[in-house]
């Protein structure tokens, strides 16, 4: 188990669940997000419950100065980070042509530029030590045509496949985590209340199962983790089905 894990987007949803599960396994944490109060509350609870060290690093990853603070923490030689979970993200409420283009650029930055920069910062020290794990929280949307969200997540999947093959032999693995619809604050924050998007109940996963499955897959050094049997089946079917059918099915929800 990683001695110290950094998790971005640790104030809510999947990131908070990574914090709960990794600290229960004995890992110290560095928790990153903008909402300092939410991070402080969770950090205090985890310190008490599991006796681990938890650092709170409040930062808006879209602000270069604040992001650089996080990069510096990743490269601090005296306080090594053995696991990085690139998880912070948000959804956009409208169709591409109706979204504000600046919102689209921020969305692209948080889902692609930020994990690329943080992975780059983490990788140098991890390779020098000969071990480390990076998890990139992508999505099953990365396997199908699904607006800029699917495109960003597809980038993360492709990057993780390449990096895992390139660096596993030197002790560093990279895993793209590809959940389906998961109960978190994601949909509500994007202005899309969960359960009201025409997504049937059976398609929803809970964060606990997603995080546990992804940590098992990352420990095995897998490049891609698709939590739950039903989404594994859907991903396989999407590879075999005609492109037009896949595009129509992918238009369900957001
Ligand atoms: N829920 C799903 O159905 C689903 C499915 C597949 C993939 N995912 C992916 O899972 C990841 C986590 O999302 P979630 O579902 O757990 O949603 P969530 O509950 O809304 O959590 C998103 C996290 O990202 C952080 N964040 C957002 N903007 C940030 C910024 N500029 N700087 C720093 N942190 C920022 C938020 O913290 P602050 O607001 O405190 O900054 C929050 O902790 C995302 O990458 C998402 O694309 C979600």
UniProtKB/TrEMBL annotation:
Coiled coil: none annotated. Gene3D superfamilies: NAD(P)-binding Rossmann-like Domain (3.40.50.720). It comes from the Bacteria. Keywords: Oxidoreductase. Belongs to the short-chain dehydrogenases/reductases (SDR) family. PANTHER family: DEHYDROGENASE/REDUCTASE SDR FAMILY MEMBER 7B, SHORT-CHAIN DEHYDROGENASE-RELATED. This is SDR family oxidoreductase. It comes from Microbacterium gallinarum.
């Amino acid at each position: 188990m990683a001695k110290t894990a950094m998790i971005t987007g640790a104030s809510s949803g999947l990131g908070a669940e990574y914090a709960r599960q990794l600290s229960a396994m004995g890992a110290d944490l560095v928790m990153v997000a903008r909402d300092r109060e939410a991070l402080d509350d969770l950090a205090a609870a985890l310190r008490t419950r599991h006796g681990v060290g938890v650092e709170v690093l409040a930062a808006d990853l879209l602000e270069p100065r604040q992001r650089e603070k996080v990069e510096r923490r990743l490269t601090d030689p005296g306080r090594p980070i053995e696991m990085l979970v690139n998880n912070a993200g948000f959804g956009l409420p409208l169709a591409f042509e109706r979204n504000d283009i600046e919102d689209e650029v921020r969305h692209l930055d948080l889902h692609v530029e930020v994990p690329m920069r943080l992975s780059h910062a983490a990788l140098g020290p991890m390779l020098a030590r000969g071990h480390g794990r990076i998890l990139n929280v992508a999505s099953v949307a990365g396997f199908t045509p699904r607006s800029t969200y699917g495109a960003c997540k597809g980038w993360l999947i492709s990057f993780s496949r390449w990096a895992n093959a390139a660096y596993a032999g030197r002790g560093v693995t990279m895993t793209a985590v590809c959940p389906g619809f998961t109960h978190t604050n994601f949909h509500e924050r994007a202005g899309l209340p969960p359960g009201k998007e025409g997504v049937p109940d059976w398609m929803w996963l809970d964060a606990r199962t997603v995080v546990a499955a992804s940590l098992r897959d990352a420990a095995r050094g897998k490049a891609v983790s698709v939590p739950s049997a039903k989404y594994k089946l859907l991903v396989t079917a999407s590879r075999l089905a005609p492109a037009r059918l896949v595009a129509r099915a992918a238009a369900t929800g957001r």
